[in-house]
Design brief:
7 helices, mainly alpha, 2 strands, Four Helix Bundle (Hemerythrin (Met), subunit A)
Amino acid sequence: MNARDAVKISIDTGDHISMAYLDDLSDADLMRRPCQGCNHINWQVGHLIASEHGMMEQLAPGSSPALPEGFVEKYAKTTSEVDDPHAFCTKNELLTVHKAQREATLAILAKMSDEDLGKPTGVDYAPTVASMFSLQGLHWLMHSGQWVVVRRELGRKPLF
């Protein structure tokens, strides 16, 4: 195993857990908020996708697929309080964009050398290239913890 393999494991683990939590949720479920003041799941997923795209474009400009027109604006901080489901993508649209973005992220990672992974990014929350890649799984896990609350409110059993 090399450094890329270890980083990929962290990304894949975050993806596996997050996708399991989203699997049986409907579009209406994705509009639920874990509690007052929290962002609904749909917004969180869009935010995660837009964040990943931005970070990967910082590391390897032009290597990620373009996000759909207006996607970044739909999932800006200013829209986090909007509750109109028509203002956001459907679950299927989100997961399709996520899949394309994640494939690009893993392709970028595969091209990195150990030396590349140790380079600084200039970003305080992900100071090295390796930490920015690891964040792609960890960021999803951080948000998915909120989805567990919604799942329990909906009567879903624990998955993990």
